Sequence to fold (1018 residues):
Amino acid sequence: MSLTQSIDYAAISPPLVVVVTAVAVLLADLFVSAEVRRRLLAPLALAGTLGALGATAWLATGPARSTFCLAGGGCSYVADGFATYFQTIVLAALVVVLLLSYPLFDERERVPPGQVPAAEFLALMLMSVSGMLVVAAGRDLLTLLIGLEVVSLPAFVLVGLRRGDPRGVEAALKFFVFSVVSTALTIYGIALVYGTTGSIELHHIAHALSTRHAHSGAMSATAAAGVVLVLVGFGFKIAAVPFHFWAPDTYQGAPVPVAAFLSVASKAAGFAGLIVLLVVGFRPYADVWGPAVGVLAAVSMTVGNLVALRQRNVVRLLAWSTVAHAGYLLMPLAVASSQLREGVRATLAYLGIYAAMNLGAFGCAVLVRRLHPRLAIEDLRGLVTRAPLTAVAFGLFLTALAGLPPGVAGLFAKVVVFRAAVHGHVTWLAVVAAVNTVIGLAYYLRVAALMFVPADDAPVAPSSRTWSVSAGVAIAAAVTVVLSVYPQPLLHLASTAAQR
Amino acid sequence: MDVTSSSNFPWVTVLALLPLIGTLGIMLTPRESHDTVKRVALGTSLVTLAGTVAMCLEYKTNGARFQFVQSYDWIKAFGVHYAVGVDGIALVLILMTAVLTPVIILASWHEAEDGKRGVRTFFALLLATEAIILGVFGSLDVFLFYVLFEAMLIPIYFLIGSYGGPRRSYAAVKFLLYSLAGGLLMLVAVIALFVVSAHRLKHGTFDYRALLAGDLHIGHGEQVALFLGFFIAFAIKAPLWPFHTWLPDAAAEAPTGVAVMLVGVLDKVGTFGFLRFCIPLFPWAARELAPYILGLCVTGILYGALLAIGQRDMKRLVAYSSVSHFGFIALGIFAFTTQGGSGATLYMVNHAFSTGALFLVVGFLASRRGSRMIDDFGGAAKVAPWLGAAVLVAGLSALSLPGLSTFVSEFLVLVGTFTVHRWFAVVAIFGIVLAAVYVLWMVQRTIHGPVREGIETFRDLGSREAWVIAPVLAVIVVLGIYPKPLLDAINPAVKHTFSTVRPHDPAPSVPVTLGGPR
Fold:
């Protein structure tokens, strides 16, 4: 192993740009006046994100680039189609989340429980995103693990950043404890896998496992235990049942934009790591993790949907719905190993559509919160007369999450994962998902219908401070509409990203 | 695909886009300029009508089965196409929609003027509804049809829920829930059809013509399940007894123009769906289940008519009479004879105008008296003779007086049914008798008899109202005397539709003299 490595800075430019922006935001906070700060910091973070997005787009058009390579072959960081697909989703999600968060650090903000410190919030979010970008491109166990930790540590603080808000502190603590436990399990699993294979590089692991699997009994069992433990660790990250307990409380306690961030960007990063590990590293053990993933998927969607039925708070409802969607996202990964490529493609396509519609739904929750700070579902009654555009957008996102017109994008997403499951010979899982889709309809449509119950209220003029939130929701809505009308490009991108 | 197609002009796309452009135009006009909004709406609908007439003139009745076809890949991964085109059935229904929309807009001229809700939104929604319905009738891709079928709900829901009567909220939500339930079943069937086609035809497709040509040979059990998925959705939309309970509420609470749009135009999508999807795609299931469906139809004919007799609210009366009429339409369809099918298709058109006329005159009466209850009226014809005459002609067309359009279609349906299902036809005839009872009763109690208190100040028909009702009544009279052009377009399409379920008509046991196949 050579001690000096040449680094391809182009390959790592997206996380690099994001980290530099985070530092710049912190420094700017020190040197400028409070008045300038408010107008400078958020646009600075947004510009950095857009820059990283541009770098990712540029990488996506070129050939795959690898860096941090070892002498023995194998690279720790690969910016291929898979990586850029996830990085694009994460960065695009960050753009929307930043727009949604803008009112949070406005000193004039009156909606309780008030504002958060802008520089810290923005820097932490950017740092967390840099971790996600690394996870998407990481190709060895340690890079993935470090990436995941970089995702999580700032996120704890983000959840509890609101001053004097006991719920936020509780949410952050819960999130922290669960996350630390899951990390411990993941590290233990990685140690077991490393112990049996002697490598942290995924292709080496796959090779070692395939020979090990055929021969030795005890070693094989140890490696299998390692695989399952890593799976458990990632189960926490993507909030799959039974590792989901942190999600509803954390989402509800955190500022709503942070919940949106966790439910889309953080989940995408979790899936990126999970897919790389399972499909590249642990592929020889597909007969071990395949059924396990199938069970996780079935339980996640069922529990998530059933509990969502009983929710009375908009954010909690969305939180449980994200648990259910983790199940739909896992479903195609449970297919027989010969069909795994189509499965990965389906998960990627679903994730792209899910990101748009879920961000939009949380964005609408931010808008609704300004009218109804409690965010009870009952408050939505007749929303269409008070805030027509918000109600129409929220209706679009909810029907998309349910998989019905006019949110046809959600229907396409569902069809993609169903088809993958049926082709991959896990028909039982497709049946479970079909039943779950019907349960999902019940609560999504109940909320959507409630908003459109005609009422005689007068429209409420939107406050001037919501323009950025509206812009964020509009972006999500535009993407959802485009994906509803013409999903072909996304499906194509997903399938090229899955060609590995 | 259709090299024999007479014209490649994309009529369907153009016709569906015209009202959408009008919608955009309305949204761009200033909020206060109500008159501009209305003129734009009326102008757009008239341009659409002109385009539709041009399309009909270009249509070749002996040409290809589907004409003016356009087909592009939309979502390759799912075999979804943007495929549009018309056969004779779709053609006459599009014409019907295009004729009625200007009437509806003119009839709704002063709707939504109470200042609470937007005039712009009202007319924009009406035009959007027209655009979607034209798209539904013109689509040749199952998925495209499904999306538009569901999309129809949205404008109508807001039209009823925001501009309707006192119980509008209840009626709109009930309408929405019924329709969504049906739509869900249809969605399952649509996806299942895709899976079946993927199984039988290598590549899954939603292209209607590919599905027809592919000769799917779907297994019997699957056929029944798929048939029911589509059938129940359409039966709710139509609505067929016992799926009709949303209709009286929705029609009674909707503003007059919207009620005409709903019952006259939009509900025809249900019966159109029977002809377009249920029968050609699942012939075995259609044949097996036909006797039960005919039973539902006959029950609906009698049930709707009996409940219409019992109504005191005129709008509800018209709504229940429509349940009865929809029974007739479905009866003609599921008899699987060319006469029955052609009669049913003609009935769809005639019903739109006759029920439309009834809703319109009821609207005129109600707007003068401030009540829809029959008991509040009496002797209106003495005060307002032209209004009385309009009520009378509309009523007579609803009871199928010979010489008026509904008679031709009802006769064809009954003859077409009689040749194959004698007893169903015989029982259905009682529906006509009951229709005479409820119509004449309403006419007698509202416009004849002594002039009641509150009626003596009635205005006669205003010029706008005359412009609204006169074209509708004219169509009723003209089609009663000369239905041949429509039947010429309808007959070949109906023969194609029934070609899988019953290739040849049974020899008629009753001589046919009127308007039958040449």
Q: What stands out?
A: The longest helix of chain B spans residues 168-200. The two ends of chain B are 29 Å apart (CA to CA). Residues 1-5 of chain B have pLDDT under 50 and may be disordered. Residues 283-506 of chain B form one domain.
